Amino acid sequence: MTNTSTITRLAALAAPALLSLALLALPRPGLAQDAAGGAADDQGPLRIEISGGQVEPMPLAVVPFFDEGGAGDLADQIRQVVAADLTGTDLFREIAQAAQVARPEGFDDPVAYPDWRAVNAEALVLGAVSVKDDAVTVKFRLFDVFAGQPLGDGMQFDAPREGWRRVAHKVADQVYARITGETAYFDSRVAFVSETGPKDARRKRIGIMDYDGANPLWVTDDSALVVSPRFSPDGQRLVYTSLAGGMPEIMLMDLDRVQARPLRTEAGTMSFAPAFSPDGRWIVYSREKGGNTDIWQMDVATGAERPLVETAAIETSPGFSPDGRQIVFESDQSGSQQIYVMPADGSGEPTRISFGEGSYGTPAWSPKGDLVAFTNQQGDKFHIGVMRPDGTEEKMLTESFLDEGPSWAPNGRVVMFTRQTPGGDGTPRLHSVDVTGRNMRPLDIEGAASDPDWGPLLP
């Protein structure tokens, strides 16, 4: 069931921000950098190498953004989001504002590199904000302090004022990408299940929020149980499982209109745990009939469906590889729940890839294709782990009373999952962890939440 008042809010807030955000590269300003300090000849390009498991955070100065007209407090709010995005990765350490003694007096002023080196800043972010009517303009420039030169061109972002957080994420994305060499992930959304009420009578509704937990918008109400939201590859549609009709069935939602319809399957069957193919044409899902659960595939446009995996065992939690050629799923055909891969066209036999201690489930293929994340249970402990798609190089990232349901950031760097606290009043919360196992942290979101699905980077 859909909450009509929420439909209005989502359309009014999200759609303009998605459609009207514009990027405009500024010409490189003629900074008097040599006169202000000169380049350090022995320095290479500024870069954080994050292939290893241990990284010393890079000292970064994000100076107060200049108000170039009408911005007021918004200039500082945008600066704070940029700084929080970058330091939240644990790859950057912010230079305290009290130590920023060499701030330029204007966005185009020369940078005093020696003064910034004196406080050990390695990177410097300058920004400026202006607001006219309902539009906000944000400019930024990034500097390699030790090389004494800009790191890439300055850029300008124009957007509706209500889209200011997206602009801040865009700025942080640019800084992150230029310094790490990786695709960023800050300007992205997460679908999740919000939970209220006692543990034995949860009420659930599906929300969509910024990656950092801000701006939650509800796309269903809590009148019926809803679980397993999954974005389409373009982020414009959502599939999920609903029990509104008394039996699990898969719903397809157009997020622009916040309207959902059921994807019908054969009468007398239950369908659940859907996931889109990388081209958005297909979904794979679990279908239960007569007490047995198998993996099926459906053409979203026509509703034509066919089985991919049919055995006497229970198969569920299917998902595609990023190239669409394989699927990964969990099955108990070996006697305990384990992870299998097989060709997405249904040819060939499933190959088991999990052979460690305990049971494995909820596999999720990374966007890079190099890893599969999973839930592992060993005794009374749960873990989120990763392994290569051939089952090698298994590594556990977390351990707790109950961790489950990993979902990847768009760049494959971070995994988000659900952590349940023990006891009768135990509560699920969303957490994230770097793929190296570093930087585990709870998501800043009010109330209980579970079952995250991290959507694509927004355009």
UniProtKB/TrEMBL annotation:
It is found in: Periplasm. The keyword Iron does not apply. Pfam families: PD40 (PF07676), TolB_N (PF04052). GO terms for biological process: cell division; protein import. Residues 1-32 form the signal peptide. The keyword Cell cycle applies. Keywords: Cell cycle, Cell division, Periplasm, Signal. One of its GO terms (cellular component) is periplasmic space. Residues 46-150 form the TolB N-terminal domain. Gene3D superfamilies: TolB, C-terminal domain, TolB, N-terminal domain. InterPro entries: 6-blade_b-propeller_TolB-like (IPR011042), Tol-Pal_TolB (IPR014167), TolB_N (IPR007195), WD40 (IPR011659). PANTHER family: PROTEIN TOLB, PROTEIN TOLB HOMOLOG. The Tol-Pal system is composed of five core proteins: the inner membrane proteins TolA, TolQ and TolR, the periplasmic protein TolB and the outer membrane protein Pal. They form a network linking the inner and outer membranes and the peptidoglycan layer. NCBIfam families: propeller_TolB. Belongs to the TolB family. Part of the Tol-Pal system, which plays a role in outer membrane invagination during cell division and is important for maintaining outer membrane integrity. This is Tol-Pal system protein TolB.
